């Protein structure tokens, strides 16, 4: 890996580039000096189709000078812009700077569009068709990769259309999640629970909390082992939004359900992360505000129900 942290590759790329440019000039000079013997009629002696003869005329000088000018242009370009390894160029241009400039210009152009929503609370914004159309586009561009285009999520990615929220579903909590991101962690609990049989029994007790199919005998034996989980999930298994611990009684399973899935969770634990959306340069505060209202509105429509 030291090759990628040293300046070897920068020097290598610079050398190859310079050698290539001056190699082109050398090749042009060598070919210009080479004389091809010609016949008395100034042909090379090559004949095609009976009477088509190749003349031995030199290349036009304008073509040669155009070739030289392209070499001069390339040297000037490489002096001003990145192209020689780690050299940044005298002009100070970079792809990152160009991107940031374009984003800033786009955000400035969009400011009047978002100004109308600045004084709206999220609940009112969620009822504004224009705000929700903008929010939908923001969601599809930035959130749908994980939560799905319909916002119903998938395994390990929360459904945003139901009433089940790990950290709370108020506009304030949604905004906090969008701004700061979330890191959810359940540590491996097998050692605290006991034997593999104890883990299986606990898995069936967890299933029983939501009325999911389970072995009632194993569930009764695993109930006492739930004390190892109560610190986060609560003694009643209803979870704690303060730490992002899921409600185990609502039959909504973020990482899969059934004995195998729950046993794997107890044995191995889980780390899940939602990246922060603020401070990345992708979304402005105004856009995050509209996106907050859109996400809140997904689970606060008439008829919105909890789904597994």
TrEMBL record:
Heme c 2 binds at residues 186, 229, 232-233. GO terms for molecular function: electron transfer activity; heme binding; metal ion binding; oxidoreductase activity. The chain crosses the membrane at residues 6-29, 62-80. Binds 2 heme C groups per subunit. GO terms for cellular component: plasma membrane. Pfam families: Cytochrome_CBB3, FixP_N. Pathway: Energy metabolism; oxidative phosphorylation. Keywords: Cell inner membrane, Cell membrane, Electron transport, Heme, Hydrogen ion transport, Ion transport, Iron, Membrane, Metal-binding, Oxidoreductase, Repeat, Respiratory chain, Transmembrane, Transmembrane helix, Transport. It is found in: Cell inner membrane. Residues 130-210, 217-299 form the Cytochrome c domain. Its cofactor is heme c. PROSITE patterns: CYTC (PS51007). Heme c 1 binds at residues 143, 146-147, 274. Component of the cbb3-type cytochrome c oxidase. Belongs to the CcoP / FixP family. PANTHER family: CBB3-TYPE CYTOCHROME C OXIDASE SUBUNIT FIXP. This is Cbb3-type cytochrome c oxidase subunit. The lineage of its organism: Bacteria, Pseudomonadati, Pseudomonadota, Betaproteobacteria, Burkholderiales.
């Amino acid at each position: 890996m030291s090759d990628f942290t040293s300046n070897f590759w920068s020097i290598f790329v610079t050398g190859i580039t310079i050698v290539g440019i001056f190699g082109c000039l050398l090749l042009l000079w060598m070919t210009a000096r080479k004389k091809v013997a010609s016949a008395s009629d100034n042909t090379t002696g090559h004949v095609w189709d009976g009477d088509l003869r190749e003349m031995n005329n030199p290349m036009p000088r304008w073509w040669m000078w155009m070739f030289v000018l392209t070499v001069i242009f390339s040297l000037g370009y490489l002096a001003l812009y990145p192209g020689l390894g780690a050299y940044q160029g005298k002009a100070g241009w970079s792809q990152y700077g160009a991107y940031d400039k374009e984003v800033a210009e786009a955000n400035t152009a969009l400011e009047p569009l978002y100004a109308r929503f600045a004084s709206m609370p999220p609940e009112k914004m969620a009822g504004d068709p224009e705000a929700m159309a903008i929010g939908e586009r923001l969601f599809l561009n930035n959130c749908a990769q994980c939560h799905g285009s319909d916002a119903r999520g998938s395994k390990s990615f929360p459904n945003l259309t139901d009433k089940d929220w790990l950290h709370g579903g108020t506009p304030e909590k949604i905004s906090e999640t969008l701004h700061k991101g979330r890191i959810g962690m359940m540590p491996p609990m097998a050692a605290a629970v006991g034997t593999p049989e104890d883990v299986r029994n606990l898995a069936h007790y967890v299933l029983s909390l939501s009325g999911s199919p389970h072995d009632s005998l194993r569930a009764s034996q695993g109930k006492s082992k739930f004390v190892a989980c109560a610190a986060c999930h609560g003694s009643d298994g209803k979870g704690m939004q303060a730490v992002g611990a899921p409600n185990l009684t609502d039959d909504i399973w973020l990482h899969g359900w059934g004995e195998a899935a729950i046993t794997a969770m107890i044995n191995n634990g889980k780390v899940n992360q939602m990246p922060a959306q603020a401070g990345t340069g992708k979304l402005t505060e105004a856009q995050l505000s509209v996106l907050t209202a859109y996400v809140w509105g997904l689970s606060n429509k008439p008829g919105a129900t909890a789904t597994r």
